[in-house]
Design brief:
380 residues, alpha/beta, 5-stranded mixed sheet
């Protein structure tokens, strides 16, 4: 038997601590409690009396009710006085029913047997495997929605697209310009010292240009955008999740994928290559300034050698990575936003996860680019 309070599909059970208050959240069902034991191991329970708030439980079945009763029993056996508060009426009725049936069956109190290392490792691996599958399903749903949009372009929300391009692209220009210029200066300074020892000052052009255009400018720009724009995507959608605006959209027949995800995804796919181009120019300019200051390589000599060492292929390799990085950042940011459950602390938590995962996947994709392009002879 399952008692549900309407809501999302994949919402695992969890207990959150916020300023000494313990709150049960998510789906306390057979499918939702898989990772609960591992999550409970990391909670620092206060001593003495404590309250367990069940108002955040979205759905509960007999398995979840048993899990909750076991948790209360374990805490009480450790000397705490536990009070269950905030339970929805139907959840409390199911909890009372399970408690009565268990007492009638004469079941012994639950054992507080902590899972072993191997079990914890298995649960951890299973948890992240399920998250990976969920993310792939989200990517598939976005691809399907994008395909439907291409068949019916009049449904697309152009105003949201241009608004997101302005936010993700135009507003990011100052920070991208500053960091790209500084990266050019650093690369030229560090490499120039070594070149100067061998009297090969002019080769600073190759060092700065190829390093920045093919590798560092796209990567640094993507990392800046992941921290700035990807996190804002998660925070925006996460806030809409906890205020139930996303559910309201579904109720009135507006797919959140079309309204919230696709404009952000396409806007970033447009904006990030342009930002990368901008970063290319500023980073090379930073290298030129440093080459002129430290190595006596004039701006004219630098610009004269630049087109001879930077081929169109080298330029396109750097720019070509940007749409892939943009898709990763947008999809991870939006996906983590939809994973927000509970209160404001959950928004902060998922935003952190979003930034970490985006940067990790961007660097992994960059490494994959290096291997693939090197294997087909485009890295020379």
């Amino acid at each position: 038997m399952t008692v549900s309070n309407l809501l999302p599909t994949a919402e695992p059970a969890a207990v959150r601590r916020d300023q000494g208050h313990y709150r049960c959240e998510g789906r306390w069902t057979l499918a939702g409690i898989e990772a609960l034991d591992a999550q409970l191991q990391g909670i620092r329970w206060s001593s003495g009396a404590l309250q367990l708030d069940g108002s955040g439980i979205r759905a509960i079945d007999t398995t979840g009710a048993l899990q909750l009763l076991n948790l209360v029993a374990v805490l009480e056996r450790d000397g705490r006085r536990v009070q269950l508060i905030g339970l929805h009426e139907e959840h409390r009725e199911l909890l009372d029913l399970v408690r009565e049936r268990r007492a009638a069956a004469g079941e012994p109190p639950p054992l507080a047997t902590p899972p072993g290392r191997l079990e914890r490792l298995g649960r951890w691996a299973w948890h992240y495997l399920r998250r990976s599958i969920d993310f792939l399903a989200f990517v598939g749903e976005a691809a399907l929605a994008l395909g439907q949009l291409l068949l019916h372009p009049r449904r697309f929300r152009w105003r949201a697209l241009f608004g997101n391009i302005e936010t993700a692209g135009v507003h990011a220009l100052p920070i991208v310009a500053l960091l790209a210029f500084m990266m050019g200066v650093v690369i030229a300074y560090q490499g120039g010292r070594q070149l100067e020892l061998y009297g090969a000052n002019i080769f600073i052009v190759e060092l700065v240009s190829l390093t920045m255009l093919r590798e560092l400018a796209p990567l640094i720009t993507a990392i800046i955008v992941a921290g700035r724009t990807g996190s804002s995507y998660t925070a925006q959608i996460g806030t809409m999740q906890i205020t139930e605006e996303v559910d309201a959209l579904r109720t009135i027949g507006i797919p959140p994928m079309n309204l919230l995800v696709l404009p952000k995804l396409l806007a970033l796919v447009v904006a990030l290559p342009l930002l990368t181009l901008f970063a290319d120019a500023l980073s090379v300019f930073g290298g030129m300034v440093m080459a002129r200051t430290m190595l006596d390589v004039s701006y004219g000599d630098f610009l004269d050698r630049f087109p001879r060492v930077v081929t169109l292929t080298s330029f396109l390799i750097g720019i070509g990575k940007a749409p892939v990085f943009a898709a990763i950042i947008a999809l991870v940011g939006c996906y983590q936003g939809f994973q927000v459950r509970g209160g404001a602390d959950a928004v902060g938590r998922q935003t952190t996860v979003s930034v970490v995962q985006s940067i990790f996947l961007v660097i992994a994709a960059d490494a994959l680019f290096s291997v693939v392009l090197g294997s087909v002879g485009l890295w020379r």
